[in-house]
Amino acid sequence: MSSDETASWQRKIDHRLRALWTRTPDLDRAQRRIRVLVRFTQSADLLTNLGVKVHSVAADIASGSIMLTDLPRIASAEEVAFIEFAQAFATDS
């Protein structure tokens, strides 16, 4: 992926997803399924084709889960406007 493509998909994810992506080792990304909210511009069926396990849809927002390793590919899709991490980080207490 070129630096322009990297910058493009990272602009479409929230800061918590960006932090999770950065701190998760490459080998662990393929093993980790995360819950997300996805704002999309076309049919929710497209999200399923991209690999999103869609749980529910309201207007142009879908809740679902993805494998962390698929995040760049899904966020790069033209029909995906934004992806937000839909679960809280664990506290260090």
Kindly describe this structure.
This protein has about 90 residues and is an alpha+beta fold. The chain has one domain: 2-Layer Sandwich (Alpha-Beta Plaits), CATH 3.30.70.80. Helix content is about 35%, strand content about 30%. It has helices at about 5-10, 15-25, 25-30, 45-50, 70-75, and strands at about 35-40, 55-60, 60-65, 80-85. A four-stranded antiparallel beta sheet has the order 2-3-1-4. β2 (about 55-60) and β3 form a beta hairpin. It is globular, with a radius of gyration of 13 Å. The chain starts with a helix and ends in an 8-residue tail after the last strand.
Name the CATH homologous superfamily.
Peptidase S8 propeptide/proteinase inhibitor I9
Count, helices? 5
Strand count, sense and barrel status of the largest sheet are: 4 strands, antiparallel
Give the averaged pLDDT, no decimals.
90
- What share of residues are in beta strands? 25-35%
CATH top level class name = Alpha Beta
Distance between the termini: 37 Å
Give the number of domains.
1
Radius of gyration (CA) equals: 13 Å
The helix/strand class is alpha+beta
| Count of extended strands | 4
Overall geometry comes to globular
Helical residue percent band: 25-40%
Low-confidence stretches: none
Tell me the series of helices and strands, N- to C-terminal. HHHEHEEHE
CATH-level-2 architecture: 2-Layer Sandwich
The main sheet orders its strands as 2-3-1-4
* CATH structural fold name: Alpha-Beta Plaits
